[in-house]
Amino acid sequence: MSYPLGTKKVTLFMHPPFLYQGSIYKMDSPRCKLSENWAGFRNILKRQPLDDVCRYFGVKIAMYYAWLGFYTNMLVLPSIVGVLAFLQGFVFYTDSSYM
């Protein structure tokens, strides 16, 4: 059975109610706090507000983002080493007689 667009069943399925707790424009809403303190490129070097994420989304989602932040930080050093190895190979490349 299909439902026409705009019915509550389709809208409820497409937009889960737990994602929309309060308006983003109210200054005291958790969604507004997350929008200001977490989302956006200006906050890229700040620590993640995991307590606010936990209160808004739950523990499982907060643990996922904590793991993702830890994993990303641990990949910084290997990525720097990889870029340096690439640049070293690019700078000191000579015609090889092996190929």
What does this structure look like?
With 99 residues, the chain is mostly helical. The protein has one domain (8-91). Helices cover 56% and strands 0% of the residues. It contains 5 helices and no strands. The chain has helices spanning 8-14, 30-37, 50-57, 59-74, 76-91. Helix 2 (30-37) runs antiparallel to helix 3 (50-57) and helix 3 packs antiparallel against helix 4. The protein is elongated and about 65 Å long.
Count of individual domains: 1
- The helix/strand order is HHHHH
Distance between the termini: 64 Å
Strand content: under 5%
Average pLDDT across residues?
A: 77
Write down how many β-strands occur, each being a DSSP E stretch of 2 or more residues. 0
How many strands, what sense, and barrel or not for the largest sheet? none
Radius of gyration: 23 Å
Provide a compact summary of the structure.
With 99 residues, this protein is mainly α.
Which short descriptors sum up this protein?
5 helices; 0% strand; mainly alpha; 56% helix
Write the layout of secondary structure elements.
Layout: H1 8-14, H2 30-37, H3 50-57, H4 59-74, H5 76-91
